[in-house]
Design goal:
It is a single chain. By secondary structure, the chain is an alpha/beta fold. It has one domain (7-148): 3-Layer(aba) Sandwich (Rossmann fold). It is 22% helix and 31% strand. It has three helices and nine strands; from the N terminus they run E-H-E-H-E-E-E-H-E-E-E-E. The strands form two sheets. Strands 4-3-2-5-6-7 form a six-stranded mixed beta sheet, with helices on both faces. A three-stranded antiparallel beta sheet has the order 1-9-8. Strand 2, helix 2 and strand 3 form a beta-alpha-beta unit. Helix 1 (8-25) crosses helix 2. Bound molecules: guanosine-5'-monophosphate (5GP). Guanosine-5'-monophosphate is lined by residues 40, 72, 95-104, 148-150, 154-156.
């Protein structure tokens, strides 16, 4: 059975409040450059930017972890880099989920080296009980327990990304 952990409505409501929180944190009139991590971050970015009224620009990055299956090794490779420079821009990394924190830790390091004005991070989901490295996440949609989740951008073997909610993957089937 499909076990919904976070409904579509809950996600949309939370994204509206995150957008308001983000907009309050930047000086009025400053542009925000959102960097989404593919593929999982695409849906969160799309919904987030549609409820923001600040001037935003966006870019995409694709990373691959050398770890296979449902764990991360911490060794990360850039599959697709950004199209534009981050120099002197307010950057927000937009991620689907922070689990061990290794991917995000790596990403924050490489983006900070590109001379942005500020770098913050927004993650739709966080699993703090799984963290192996301390990583700063400025905006968290939902804190969840240690479940493998799919939907709303998150996959299992490339499936389920299109679900409008977050579901717990129980046996890889019947979702
Ligand atoms: P970390 O480096 O923080 O351990 O892992 C981050 C990445 O692992 C995420 O961007 C995501 O691709 C994947 N990941 C971690 N937890 C889950 C999960 O519960 N479901 C899915 N589908 N992917 C996950």
């Amino acid at each position: 059975m499909n076990k919904i952990l976070i409904s579509e409505q809950e996600i949309q409501d939370r994204i509206r409040s995150l957008a308001a929180e983000i907009e309050q944190d930047y000086p009025k009139g400053d542009e925000i450059h959102l960097v989404a991590v593919l593929k999982g971050g695409f849906m969160f970015l799309a919904d987030l930017v549609r409820v923001m009224s600040t001037g935003v620009t966006m870019d995409f990055m694709a990373l691959s972890s050398y770890g296979k299956g449902t764990t991360s090794s911490g060794q990360v490779r850039v599959l697709k880099d950004l199209d534009s420079s981050l120099e002197n821009r307010h950057v927000i990394i937009v991620e689907d989920i922070v689990d061990t924190g290794l991917t995000l830790h790596y990403l924050q390091d490489i983006l900070r080296a590109r001379a942005p004005k500020t770098v913050r991070t927004a993650c739709l989901l966080s699993k703090p009980s799984r963290r192996t490295v301390a990583v700063q996440v400025d905006y968290i949609g939902f804190t969840i327990d240690d479940h493998f989740v799919v939907g709303y951008g998150l996959d299992y073997a490339e499936k389920y990304r299109n679900l409008p909610h977050i579901a717990i993957l129980e046996n890889g089937q019947n979702l």
